[in-house]
Specification:
Elements: H1 6-11, H2 14-23, H3 26-39, H4 45-57, H5 65-76, H6 86-101, H7 103-107
Helix pairs in contact: 3-6, 4-5, 5-6
Length: 109
């Protein structure tokens, strides 16, 4: 699959998106997550990630973390999404980044 732009990531049908996200490196995932966060009115990718990680650390591992991340993004980012699934797509990217970089947070260790 050729290099995708952030707009491509937002437009891909879900089955293609899942395959594309799984094939991306952490750096590519972070680049696209930063792009989506920027489109939603924030240039503070690190700050958003910090908020998400702190929230996940304080929650029991049996909670629905995917939904929790979506809610954090919806509540934290200044611009509201025009596409109904943009928070889901961004949450998917963030979950993959966390799974690859910060496994201890997700496993509750």
């Amino acid at each position: 699959m050729p290099q995708l732009t952030t707009q491509d990531v937002l437009r891909l049908p879900e089955p293609e998106l899942v395959a594309a996200l799984k094939a991306m490196s952490v750096e590519q995932l972070e680049q696209h997550a930063e792009g989506v966060i920027s489109e939603l009115g924030s240039d503070d990718y690190s700050g958003i990630m910090k908020i998400v990680m702190k929230a996940l650390e304080s929650q029991p591992t049996q909670t629905n973390r995917f939904t929790q991340i979506q809610n954090i993004l919806r509540d934290t980012l200044p611009n509201k999404a025009h596409m109904s699934d943009i928070y889901q797509r961004l949450a998917s990217m963030i979950m993959l980044i966390l799974m690859r970089k910060y496994k201890d947070i997700l496993t509750g260790k």
